[in-house]
Amino acid sequence: MHELSLMDDVVAAVARELRGARVHVVRLVVGLRSGASPRALRSCFEVCAGGTPLEGAALDIVETDGDELWLEEVEVS
Amino acid sequence: MCTSRGSGGEDGHVLVRGDRDDRGGAPAPREGLGWVREVRTVRLERELLASNNRVSARTRRLLADIGVTMVNLIGAPGAGKTSLLEATVPRLRAAGVSFAVLQGDQTTDLDAKRIGRAGVRTLQVNTGAGCHLDAAMVADGLSTLAPEPGSVVFVENVGNLVCPALYDLGELARVVVMSVTEGEDKPLKYAQAFRAADLFVLTKTDLLPYVEFDEAACVSNARRVNARLPVLPLSVTRADGLDEWCAWVERTARRP
């Protein structure tokens, strides 16, 4: 389950960069050839986001045919 | 559940992608959020593996400074990674190459003991539930192992062709190890592992008479994902190809 450690990194990075903001959406770009599974990433997100400023945020994964594994943007207020 | 993303072939064949989700696109707006404060979008545009890759880049610099060559061996359980290293020990020693082994396994130190019996400095890193070694584990392991300047460090990754392929450890070269019993389509099924490799070692060639394995097709499949991937067939049992393997290691190793 490398998706769990990937998602841990995402949550930590967003919480660090956007301290104090309310995070509504986290958007990733995940390619078919990236070696990471969107489904597994989704199931890890809730676990990793729990108890952080990202708790309750939605995870949006843009799926491509490439090898991207990318934290694209976040929607915050 | 995922069949809407499946593609129906003319022969009625339906491809169902178990790792994809139907809930593509932006999630529905949720009530109570964003009404009071304006929602803005912040572009972050960074790799998901950024934190791992910072550590691996540092490891690569540190090893280069002391002339240490780290080789990352990736392969499925039973591919023959440990046996290959065991057979490598006396040959590299005879060639005057100093080396150490960092063993990654979920649990146990059986592999480290196997290699250690051959008289090589070995450190076992247990990943617990983790399915791969990451750059931080290897950096910690290296500080304990303290490889001598000019030496070679082999990292035997956790037996797995999926997750280890994503994690740069700071190695100078990556070797994918696969045996002839695994099937010639493996390079296509586990493309990431083959795409990121600098050498493909095909093991257990002594078993070729007993298995249905099309070596040419396997090589062709590997080159479809990594066009210039060198392939080195070998048999530890018959000591075939081991000289070529050791020659590759010596060529790859930095001269102090």
* Regions with little confidence, pLDDT below 50 for 5+ residues of chain A: none
What ranges of chain B have pLDDT less than 50 throughout 5 or more consecutive residues? 1-12, 21-28
Number of domains of chain A: 1
Q: What does the main sheet of chain B amount to?
A: 7 strands, parallel
* Count of discrete alpha- or pi-helical segments spanning 4 or more residues of chain B: 8
Number of E-state strands of chain B: 10
- Share of helical residues of chain A: 25-40%
Could you state the CATH homologous superfamily of chain B? P-loop containing nucleotide triphosphate hydrolases
Named CATH topology of chain B: Rossmann fold
User: Residue share in helices of chain B?
Assistant: 25-40%
Describe this structure in words.
The complex is a heterodimer of chains A (77) and B (256). By secondary structure, chain A is of the alpha+beta class. Chain A has helices at residues 2-17, 38-49; strands at 23-31, 58-64, 69-76. Chain A has one domain (2-76): hypothetical protein PF0899 fold. Chain A has a three-stranded mixed beta sheet, with helices on one face. The longest helix of chain A has 16 residues, at 2-17. The N and C termini of chain A lie far apart (32 Å). Chain B has eight helices and ten strands. In chain B, α2 crosses α8. Residues 1-12 and 21-28 of chain B have low confidence and may be disordered. The chains are: A alpha+beta (77), B alpha/beta (256). Chain A binds chain B through residues 1-2, 5-6, 9-10, 12-14, 17-18, 22, 24-25, 28, 33-40, 42, 58-63, 67, 69-77, and chain B through 18-21, 23-27, 30, 33-34, 36-52, 129-132, 134, 162-163, 165-167, 191-192, 195.
